């Protein structure tokens, strides 16, 4: 297996993309191949969904606790999204990097750009669906929203896709294996 990577080899990667692009699926498949990469778990004030687990999916905290943590500078980035707050905890990211582990954050576009401002060396990767039609089909296929909410999500996704030029890399998720292989190449430093 060889020696562990040196601390200087550790890199901060941020993966994002619109709802329905499959970024979560790509990230999970990547991490199954590269468990040595530290996945940053965000904090949120929204309630946990039935299938979500504390510490694995999110750190679920109250609004007052979130505000106190934000005021103490404990977040690398934080934002209000719809009616809830989300943030990337600074300490676990810094600890992983200091021990030589690369870190992957799965964030929305607003969070990704905030991380890039805070840490200019961060590598931003945008996961893009193969087409607008495929994106709409994926969103419909989830069956989690009614027609009105689906329309809002689709419009938001189209607006997010326009921002892909702000990223260091764009990966089109038209085939899971190809998308994961491309992410592996980027994270290994071979764009």
Please give the CATH class. Answer: Alpha Beta
Q: Describe the biggest sheet?
A: 5 strands, parallel
The fraction of residues assigned to DSSP E strands is: 15-25%
Strand order of the largest sheet: 2-7-1-8-9
Can you walk through the features of this model?
- With 191 residues, the protein is an alpha/beta fold.
- Helices cover 40% and strands 20% of the residues.
- The chain has one domain (7-187): Rossmann fold.
- Strand 5 and strand 6 (84-89) form a beta hairpin.
- Residues 1-8 have low confidence and may be disordered.
Give descriptors for this structure.
single chain, 191 residues, alpha/beta, Rossmann fold, 4-stranded mixed β-sheet, 9 strands, globular, disordered N terminus
Protein topology:
Blueprint: E1 12-16, H1 23-33, E2 38-39, E3 43-44, E4 59-60, H2 63-71, E5 75-81, E6 84-89, H3 90-98, E7 103-106, H4 109-118, E8 123-128, H5 132-142, H6 147-161, E9 169-172, H7 176-187
Parallel strand pairs: 1-7, 1-8, 2-7, 3-4, 8-9
Antiparallel strand pairs: 3-6, 5-6
Brief summary of the model shown:
With 191 residues, this protein is α/β, with parallel strands linked by helices. Helix content is 40%, strand content 20%. The strands form two sheets. A five-stranded parallel sheet has the order 2-7-1-8-9.
């Amino acid at each position: 297996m060889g020696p562990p990577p040196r601390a200087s080899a550790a890199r901060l990667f941020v993966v994002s993309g619109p709802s329905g692009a499959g970024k979560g699926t790509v990230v999970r498949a990547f991490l199954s191949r590269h468990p040595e990469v530290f996945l940053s778990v965000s904090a949120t004030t929204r309630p946990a969904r039935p299938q979500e687990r504390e510490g694995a999916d999110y750190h679920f905290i109250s609004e007052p606790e979130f505000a106190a943590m934000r005021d103490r500078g404990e977040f690398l980035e934080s934002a209000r999204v719809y009616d809830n707050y989300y943030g990337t905890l600074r300490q676990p990211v810094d600890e992983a990097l200091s021990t030589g582990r690369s870190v992957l954050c799965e964030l929305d576009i607003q969070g990704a750009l905030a991380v890039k401002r805070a840490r200019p060396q961060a590598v931003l990767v945008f996961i893009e669906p193969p087409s607008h039609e495929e994106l709409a089909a994926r969103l419909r296929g989830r069956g989690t929203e009614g027609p009105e909410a689906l329309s809002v999500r689709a419009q938001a996704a189209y607006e997010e896709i326009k921002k892909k030029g702000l990223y260091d890399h764009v990966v089109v998720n038209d085939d899971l294996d190809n998308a994961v292989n491309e992410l592996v190449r980027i994270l290994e430093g071979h764009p």
